[in-house]
Design brief:
With 65 residues, the chain is mostly helical. It is built from two helices and no strands.
Length: 65
């Protein structure tokens, strides 16, 4: 991917961390499904948790409109 314009700023700041967290969650689920155990579960960073909280607040606000 070669982001251009505003995406040069938004991709690494707003989209990449949650994207990576989703991939790690998917790999954890695959490991659990294939082996029945999860050796070391991935943890979301505080930045990913902040972004998710902000996104949730925006979605709740839009739902109220």
């Amino acid at each position: 991917m070669a982001p251009r314009g505003l995406a040069r700023l938004t991709w690494p700041l707003a989209w990449l961390p949650p994207h990576d967290a989703c991939l790690e969650d998917g790999l954890d689920r695959a490991e659990l499904a294939c082996t029945g155990t999860l050796r070391r579960p991935a943890r979301w960073s505080s930045y990913v948790r902040l972004l998710r909280a902000l996104a949730g607040a925006v979605m709740r606000r839009e739902a109220d409109l």
